[in-house]
Design brief:
Layout (H helix, E strand, L loop, with lengths): L1 E7 L5 H15 L4 E7 L11 H9 L16 H4 L2 E4 L2 H8 L7 E4 L14 H23 L1
Parallel strand pairs: 1-2, 1-3, 3-4
Helix pairs in contact: 1-5, 2-5
Length: 144
Amino acid sequence: MKRVLVVCLGNICRSPIGEEMLRIHAKSNNLPLFVDSAGTSGWHRGNAPDVRSCEVMNRHGHSIDNQRSRPLTEQDLQTFDCILAMDSQNLDDILSLPAGRAVVTRFVQNTNVPDPYYGDGDGFERVYEMIDKAAAAWIRSWSI
């Protein structure tokens, strides 16, 4: 079973959405996949996802209410097969850790998924759409 970790800054906005969308697309494609998420900072350790992330997921018929933020650890680079970063800063932060066995890349190839934290609700919808499309593409690529 493939093990995938989705990473953003605080693990309360983008990566919880990414975690759940990978899980949903994997299930609909009968792909066995273990998915988790983390943040490059520990600022929100133990907190639920941002209410706006929960709301956008609920509007699309999904729930991330039970997820809790956790910080990225050096061990994650050994435990996971693939680590997907939401933006170039997250990618750089991950790559600054001692190398592990995980392949580390961006969630959306060559594109940053913008952090909607300081923006309005529309930003969360745009982020959801980007993540949903990329998650479907990842699952297709792993199903081959």
